[in-house]
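Colleagues,

For the teaching module next term, I've prepared a clean inverse folding example: a structure given as tokens, and then the sequence designed for it. I'd like students to try predicting residues themselves before seeing the answer, so please don't circulate the second half yet.
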């Protein structure tokens, strides 16, 4: 009888530790996706560029502004990170309220965590592709690199993608924890 009680307590303590780890990972994912959305959402840089209209006329200085809203991949990135952040807040409430006792809620949260991983990976991939073209250009279609002109903008976009990637890894760990709990 005493041995069975000790085994039940060890299982209960392991479950509590797993729930604390789950909650900590959700807080981490929430903070990282929020930070990624804010860093890119507030990203803006204005610079003056000399434009030559005619070789015999001196160049004209034009002010150009780079904003995240000008690129659809960056818009997608900000929206997906905001969705992931909002979902994490709701899932955190559900997981803390049910304490993992309701299997249906636990399975639903694990499946939605997997959906967040997929959405975040797609947003990071799209933004990374656009960022790479901005960094290196594309000589085949005569697109010049722009990160040498908008360096602050490009650096902030890279930081946002890094934060989002770490956040997606937190979601991936949440999926692994969710599957591990089911075993």
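(Answer key — instructors only)
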């Amino acid at each position: 009888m005493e041995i069975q009680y000790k085994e039940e307590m060890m299982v209960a303590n392991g479950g509590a530790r797993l729930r604390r780890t789950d909650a900590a990972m959700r807080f981490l994912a929430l903070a990282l996706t929020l930070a990624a959305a804010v860093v890119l959402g507030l990203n803006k840089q204005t610079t003056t560029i000399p434009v030559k209209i005619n070789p015999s006329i001196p160049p004209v200085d034009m002010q150009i502004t780079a904003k995240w809203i000008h690129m659809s991949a960056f818009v997608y990135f900000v929206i997906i990170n905001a969705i992931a952040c909002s979902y994490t807040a709701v899932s955190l409430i559900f997981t803390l309220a049910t304490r993992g006792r309701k299997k249906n809620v636990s399975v639903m949260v694990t499946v939605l965590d997997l959906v967040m991983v997929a959405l975040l990976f797609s947003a990071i991939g799209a933004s990374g592709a656009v960022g790479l073209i901005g960094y290196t250009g594309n000589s085949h279609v005569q697109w010049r690199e722009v990160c040498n002109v908008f360096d602050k903008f490009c650096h902030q976009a890279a930081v946002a993608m890094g934060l989002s990637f770490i956040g997606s890894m937190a979601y991936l760990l949440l999926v692994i924890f969710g599957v591990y709990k089911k075993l």
